[in-house]
Design a protein that fits this description.
- The protein starts with a helix and ends with a helix.
- The strands form two sheets. It has an eight-stranded parallel beta barrel with strand order 1-2-5-6-7-8-9-10, surrounded by five helices.
- By secondary structure, the protein is α/β, with parallel strands linked by helices.
- The longest helix is centred in the last third of the chain and has 21 residues.
- 40% of the residues lie in helices and 18% in strands.
- The relative contact order is 0.13.
- The chain has one domain: Alpha-Beta Barrel (TIM Barrel), CATH 3.20.20.220.
- The radius of gyration is 20 Å and the shape is globular.
- It has eleven helices and ten strands.
């Protein structure tokens, strides 16, 4: 079933959903099941699986010279999505990114998803490589998420890159996109950011999942601004609890978000890691209760491999 169909079926009731990371190369899919098994009691209709571009490492060869090697540290997104659907009977939403993929590789990934009966996808540009100051697409790859959305929509209409394919099989992807309640860090202002979100919806995006935030006011203002600009699709709040004191600096630096002063003070005053985690749980529970009262489509948790904390929050909200 499509993600948007779950929202329609819920008739205004708030659902719950999760996002997971593929294991590092060399890991086991059992690590995914270990994260999700304890969360299935909350009956999520869908689970997101992130996609990761390749990294480059330098390795010394037999001649003593260093050579640059591309390595994908978290492979397996499509297969993990299929495994989730088979094991739990819930829909999986693999992420698909522009970075690190040519258009042909993107098409092949979409074909794999369609064969596996994975009918939902979150279309993202993706981040720049760590050593690059800005996003640089692959040769013959997409520069922007809207171009990726257009390619997915082409496949939904049976149009492939190979012009010789006539009457190609039509895929049936429901396309989600990203939204940023505190503005994408590359956007010059919020109005510009909303403009590009609107264009991605026009191109085929059917719902929005937001970047994490810790101040619900930012989410509600973002939704209002979207509605004022004719964006009517469901807007799903993305959530992650604060669990460690060093996240007071790392989360704003990595995700370009603000942490409320009250949350920072409470976390800084915590005596140990468990106390910090409790502060984060209580803050997230309060966020979730307010968002649920507002009848948001789903509370979408970025688990980051920590199902225990997510479970403690969900128990108090659902």
């Amino acid at each position: 079933m499509k993600v948007t169909e779950y929202f329609e079926k819920a008739q205004g009731q708030t659902l719950i959903s999760f996002e997971i990371l593929p294991p590092l190369k060399g890991g086991s899919i059992d690590s995914i099941f270990k994260i999700l098994d304890p969360l299935m009691e909350f009956r999520p209709p869908f689970v997101d699986v992130t996609y990761h571009r390749e990294d480059f490492i330098y390795r010394k060869n037999d001649d003593g010279f260093f050579e640059k090697i591309a390595i994908r540290k978290r492979p397996g997104t499509v297969v993990i999505a299929q495994a989730i659907q088979n094991r739990y009977g819930v829909d999986a939403v693999p992420h698909l990114i522009c970075g690190g993929f040519t258009r042909q590789e993107t098409e092949d990934a979409l074909i794999d998803m369609a064969y596996a009966k994975v009918n939902n996808v979150l279309a993202l540009r993706g981040d720049a490589r760590k050593f690059e100051g800005r996003f640089i697409p692959e040769p013959e790859g997409h520069h922007y998420a809207i171009d990726l959305i257009r390619q997915i929509m082409d496949m939904n209409q049976g149009k492939y890159l190979d012009a010789d394919i006539v009457d190609g099989a039509k895929s049936n992807f429901c396309i989600g996109i990203a939204g940023y309640p505190e503005k994408h860090f590359e956007a010059p202002n919020m109005e510009s950011d909303i403009h590009y979100i609107r264009e991605k919806i026009k191109a085929g995006g059917e719902y929005i999942v937001t970047q994490m935030f810790f101040d619900n006011k930012k989410y509600f203002e973002f939704v209002d601004l979207c509605r004022q600009n004719g964006i009517t699709v469901p807007i799903v709040p993305g959530l992650k609890p604060l669990t460690r004191k060093n996240q007071i600096q790392s989360l704003p630096a990595s995700f370009y978000i603000n942490l409320p002063e009250d949350l920072v003070k409470a976390a800084e005053g915590a005596k140990n890691t468990e106390a910090v985690k409790q502060v984060g749980i209580e803050w997230a529970v309060a966020q979730c209760q307010e968002l649920k009262k507002a009848k948001v489509p789903s509370l979408h948790f970025y688990t980051m491999g920590d199902s225990e904390t997510t479970r403690k929050i969900a128990e108090k909200v659902f």
